[in-house]
Amino acid sequence: MYCGYCGRLLRRCVCHEPGSDLARFMARAVREAKPRQRSEPYKRAVPPQIKRRERATLRARHERWHQKLSDDFGEGCANCGATESLVLDHIIPIAKGGRSMLDNLQLLCAECNRLKGKLVIDCRDFTSARRVTGDND
Ligand SMILES: [Zn+2]
Ligand SMILES: [Zn+2]
Questions:
Q1: Which ligand lies nearest the alpha carbon of 121?
Q2: In a structure prediction context, what are the per-residue pLDDT tens digits for the chain, which is 137 residues long?
Q3: What span, in angstroms and rounded, lies between the C-alpha atoms of 36 and 73?
Q4: What distance in angstroms lies between residue 62's CA and the mean position of ligand 1's atoms?
């Protein structure tokens, strides 16, 4: 049996222990979401060694994804609702075979992205649920 978040054997998994990255990540989701504002222009991290034209293509694609995700799921972090320092997060990390495609991406703030690390957590349902019920459960 394997953990759905970290993919390790359940007896090796520490996801469900207090103080784990998963616990801290989930704790952020129940904070009161800040009011949504216009997002800042999205700053993409594209390695400098990539040629200018490829960089422009990647940037345009990331811009489209970012826009689509904020249209569909709201303009904040899918986990905590923060509107600062948003990044495109791979729900299934690339290291675990996740692909750079829209259905594997969600907007997370830098802090939630850091806590999520290589865990597999799809937060996009959180935001839809939050929007429908109007609370953070
Ligand atoms: Zn785990
Ligand atoms: Zn966040």
A1: 1
A2: 899 999 999 999 999 999 999 999 988 887 665 555 444 444 455 566 667 788 888 889 999 999 999 998 888 999 999 999 999 999 999 999 999 999 999 999 999 999 999 999 999 877 555 555 544 44
A3: 11
A4: 29
Tell me the CA–centroid distance for residue 53 and ligand 2, in Å. Answer: 31
- Tokens read off for 59: 């940037």
Our CA angle for 56, 90, 43, nearest 5°, is: 35
Nearest CA to 32 out of 119, 121, 135 is that of 135
For the chain, the structural domain boundaries read 10-133
Cα gap 98→52, rounded to integer Å = 26
Query: Strand locations in the chain, DSSP E?
Result: 86-90, 105-109
